[in-house]
Amino acid sequence: MNPIIRTLLGALACAAMAALAMPGPAVAQLPPGMKPFETTTIADGVYTFRFFFHRNMFVVTRDGVIVTDPINPKAAKVLMGEIRKVTRQPVKYVIYSHEHWDHISGGKVFKDAGATFISHKNCPASFKRVPSPAVVMPDRTYSGARHDVKLGGRTVELHYFGLNHGRCMTVMRLPKEKILFIVDIVTPNRVAFRGMPDFYPAEWIRSLKAIEKLDFVKIIPGHGPPTAPRAAVAAQRQYLEDLMAAVKAARAKTLNLAKVKAMVKLPKYEKWAFYKQWLPMNVERIFLYYHMGY
After folding, report:
1. Region label for 95, one of left (φ > 0), alpha (ψ between -120 and 50) or beta (otherwise)
2. What's the average model confidence in pLDDT over 163-173?
3. What CATH code is carried by the domain that includes residue 176?
């Protein structure tokens, strides 16, 4: 793809997801009874914080706190308050899952408190290409498939599986608790997000297969419930494989996109969230994958 077009598409995707991250009457209508934010204890010293429909993880150690995605400026201030409810330890590290603004904006409150920001080495290029004043640049980056962050007797493993969603996606693993923090590439019991912006379908499936080889018993997803069982990763992969197979089969009969969208039905997943609304968009993205090769 032309680099200029890729940059424009990346900017549009980031802007769209940033808009979705911000509370507002158009995009953040909470279901009845759902609070705007909440913090849930997952294990000893392990918490997940939800702000509207986005979620992160933080780990409290004897020497400080490790925080993941700040979400956005409003969320980050609320998160700092939630952390202070469980510990007076300083926030030592903020780890980015990937480059998209709707998850990693708003870290200034932690930077001002002295935190060190960490990401995969591919993230800063995205931040420079499409800058946002709400995004704190990483102080440290890692390269390769694995990097460990250690603090106060706790370890957070950072795993990079290559392209899947964005260019610097990090999956985090807590080895003692056998928990993964995994953002966007696994959302339990939900079809893929709209037109799958900045997703690489075949690489996404490859990454999920690699993630399934890790030793874990449950996940904390970037969207959805506080935790989900290990099987959620395989279920996400199976959905993508079924989607791609169905679109490929439909394309063998016709190259008319409208007809393909009408033909592809996946009743196995009809009870998943946004099946009716987003399945046609998922189908169109995969149709274009087979048309364009990416």
Report:
1. beta
2. 98
3. 3.60.15.10
